[in-house]
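ugh ok so i messed up the first submission bc i forgot one of the chains. this is the corrected input, ALL of the components this time, i swear. 1294 residues overall. if the numbers dont match what u have on ur side tell me asap before i send this to the collaborators (the ones from the other lab, u know who)
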Amino acid sequence: MRVRDALLGKPIPDSEAESESLGPAEAVPVLGLDALASAAYGPEAALAVLVALGAAGVRFIVPITAAIVVLLLLVQTSYRHTISAYPDGGGSYTVAKENLGRGASLLAAASLSVDYVLNVAVAISAGVGALVSAMPVLHRHTLGLCLALLVLLTFANLRGLRTTGAAFMVPTYAFVACLGVAIAVGVARLVAAGGHPAPVVAPSALRPAVEAAGAWVILRAFASGCTAMTGVEAVSNAVPVFREPAQRNAERTLSIIIGILVFLLAGIAILARAYGIGATDPERPGYQSVLSQVVAAVFGRGVVYDVSIASIMTVLCLSANTSFADFPRLCRSLALDGYLPEAFAHAGRRLVYSTGILFLSATAAALLVVFRGVTERLVPLFAVGAFAAFTLSQAGMVRHWHRRRRDRGARRALWINGAGAVATAVTLVVVLASKLLEGAWITVLVIPALILVFRRTSARYEEAARACDADAALDVTDLAPPIAVVPVKRLDALTFKALRFALGISPRVHAVQVLAAGHAHEDLSTRWADAVERPCRAAGLPPPELAVLRSRYRQVVDPLLGYVHRLAAEDRSRFIAVLVPELVEARWYHYLLFSHTATLLKMMLLFRGGPQVVVVNAPWYLDAPRRRRARRGRRGVVPLAAHTAER
Amino acid sequence: MRVRDALLGKPIPDSEAESESLGPAEAVPVLGLDALASAAYGPEAALAVLVALGAAGVRFIVPITAAIVVLLLLVQTSYRHTISAYPDGGGSYTVAKENLGRGASLLAAASLSVDYVLNVAVAISAGVGALVSAMPVLHRHTLGLCLALLVLLTFANLRGLRTTGAAFMVPTYAFVACLGVAIAVGVARLVAAGGHPAPVVAPSALRPAVEAAGAWVILRAFASGCTAMTGVEAVSNAVPVFREPAQRNAERTLSIIIGILVFLLAGIAILARAYGIGATDPERPGYQSVLSQVVAAVFGRGVVYDVSIASIMTVLCLSANTSFADFPRLCRSLALDGYLPEAFAHAGRRLVYSTGILFLSATAAALLVVFRGVTERLVPLFAVGAFAAFTLSQAGMVRHWHRRRRDRGARRALWINGAGAVATAVTLVVVLASKLLEGAWITVLVIPALILVFRRTSARYEEAARACDADAALDVTDLAPPIAVVPVKRLDALTFKALRFALGISPRVHAVQVLAAGHAHEDLSTRWADAVERPCRAAGLPPPELAVLRSRYRQVVDPLLGYVHRLAAEDRSRFIAVLVPELVEARWYHYLLFSHTATLLKMMLLFRGGPQVVVVNAPWYLDAPRRRRARRGRRGVVPLAAHTAER
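and heres the new structure output, hopefully the right one now
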């Protein structure tokens, strides 16, 4: 108990549930971090494809980034309309559910789930990439560092990270400031040098071209670069957390985020081209991330470089953290709708959805291990989910406006969301086509598999609900005491306790002894009359009947189960209550001393007993009563009063 | 079930318990194998110490073997008297228990246990050593081969190896024949060559001396060589399995075994000296076991060599198997006396003591892994347990004869057993002193630790028996129906079933609903009157009372436990029966869908509920009744009839 408290913190009562209320200045870090952090891996992903073209390839980064910026602005306009239509939060799952029906909503949910998991893996691997760029000696520990960061994030989130603006503001604004200054200074030098500035630290040499420039390689670079757009949907999900006027604050926040992102992407593209910065192989020592090369080219490797790399790394790790905030919430929505196991819907001791957090962490860890913590390998899997969710959300909005097409402004909104839907759908097709063989096929297989899981879960819950369906009122006809069955081994205190309980609930008690060779127990039939029957008759009670079964296979459970089945068959209308006495030990290792027939018997009775059988478990405490009472007082009765307020 | 049957075989009924009846010809392999196999590692262990003296060291093998042979003959005479005194089997544990009391018997038991475990590890590692001598390419797989052999032996023993003479006779007599012929031919050539025979295949070169000859190194070589004596006690344990006249047959068997062993030891020593054969380093490639060198020197590496090595390997593996037969039986005796957990006393589905087998296998595996399968490293741990058991057994016999000192022949027997006890005790001291730092300290620590475990276990059983102690007859005063507590979540079929059972066993039923934030359950108090109270009143039953508890920490179990404790405190004389409904699923993975509150609640009620609380578990089957009934028919009722014969 203590260890758990130390690691995870003390339980938090419901009354302390966090209530946020953000203005744009705090909202940009909290909600925009994921989008802004994408600037750290989007351009790099595009350059990693262009590197095949050698030095000539770097030139294409500018038009590719321009295309991404156009798409980004379109998506922004489109999401502004989503914000105004869903002031309570319009995530892709919600919008698709309300407008496009169950199938589309599950597709959106599956896409988003994949996206969230990949975001964790990509952000962490990119953050570690920044770190090993600055400290090449750590290169061979890439995967270990990734997993260590993941474990850290998992624990922080299980404790319940207070995601207040402050924690996010410093690194986010440091990141924007460092990159912003680097871009401004770099562009100024570029202009001063007439287009050919000299880098302070020269970027890594580009490999010679292995491919000719063509539409296919440009498309693939664009598709990879589109990972820069992930995370922009966050604001539309989160309208309720804004200060009033919530809707306007949300729109303003979205504009600021997109504005900064566009500035960063454009600046990185221009400087990469000017300095001839390409991607280097992340799986070889000497790896330098693109941002590391850009900052080093502008400032050299001094204090500013170190601060920049530190802020990039922090922002990337925090952007992994947004998945930890959003994925469990999505799982909770799915669980409340019956598409995921109940466990995802329950807030744990620290008011966080622990099941979702652990699940996210486990799957992200698996991805990191399989792809050895290399961002470049993860990126092909990444954009598919995000663009599928974008497209479904926009398409849902088209339907939404179509229903309200007589309202003022609805027609214009319909066109804008429609354009957004088409643009993201086209991008999705491009991403799919160009990345399918590089790994997107995994995403393409996982998404329908997830949908299948959602549907099967839901079907099973419905089946279970039907099986548990009951009349409106309790049926109290034909109530009769159960037939009590008491398995006995010896005539000891456990047996007597069980017999007393049995005699208290039913006038018909059967005692059963199973004699198995190798178990040195005496046949009780000789002592039964004196020890049990006589006192019962004296008290005017019908005495329990003893049956002695002999087992040829040294098994105790099967013969008992057979006896119970025969009793059940005799009278199908009555419950059979089987009393299983249980030794309760003070120390876990004492359980090694006793045979676990009781546990096995309970399980078999529950699983194979049939609907009439009810298992009655009577504990017998082996340790000193004094110690037990003291312990119960400490952890049982007293704190309970504090936990509950009885009506 | 099928997989288990395939791996372990179908269950065996009690009636097929094996009954053996051996004459000397079959008994020599069955009971003597362990002792004879020692010839394969005893001389090697002595030579491994002498190797420090270089070529000069090999000469000492002859006097050392002579000392061991003298000791062996003394022990033989001593054991003949044990056989005549304990015709029902006089193992060290039994003899010590009957003559020296509890302390000595536990010391004997602990020593024997250690000895059995080490015998498995040493025999397997020596067998694999023989194999890699013949096939040097396998050298780097030494540990893997050891563990594979161990797994094979474990499975064979869990299935229940029929230890008939035949299975043992062929390899044992092949082993004796091969070595016997090699020794005879070798000695003949030795005589013919006037003491300096030329080897067919030259033995491995001896390393130069690193130590001067002295008493200490000779003592250490003697102590290592004493492992050749392990296993000679087997006959004295097993008198009842002999054909009549059992005692005489046993004595004759013991004489034959010792005779062969003396012949083998002497022959190996003479040939090792004549050919200048020393031990080679088993941890380096190029390792050659001493027997491999001897056979190769006499016959070269032809067919005879291959057959000899195969018989040595088989005999060593089978000698590991004698531990699998004897250790579980020793554990069973200890368990029946209350010194080990009950599980060791129960014969499993194949009539073998599975717990003992698995325990032996696990500890032997641990030893093999720690000592990397190298016989030489295991030997220092080995002889301590064996000689401690020898000494205790002889000392027990001294006491035995002392009590009967007026009988005819008792005085002479007393002297012989006394001499045996002194000789083995002196050897034990030599072994301890010379091997302590090389690893015997492990044995010296483990033996008292085991004794502690035996004593603690016994004390705990006595405590438990006292705690379960009961009067001679059932007390039926103050019998009253329990207070029934029904935790409810919703008004569904599970709840109604629980309420029906509760109303059937008690007029006082409390229903409890715990409302925790985040669990979307409606407050039942509004529907209670209509759904439950009204039908009860209409039927003239006292209606169940509903309490709705609110939980501030989203926990369900603690508030319920508090409620139960308060009810229990109100009336200390009545049982509180808590009804826990339980969904029973057809497929294990469906359990992932439901929260495990019921399981947790049951456990907490059992562990912290206190002596009044009884847990009633009512199953609710979710799958189709047809399928369930079919399954129950297949595995439940029908085979049960075959398993049991009811009185």
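quick check: Chain B touches chain A through 118 residues (CB under 8 Å). that seems consistent at least. Residues 25-462 of chain B form a domain with the Amino acid/polyamine transporter I fold (CATH 1.20.1740.10).
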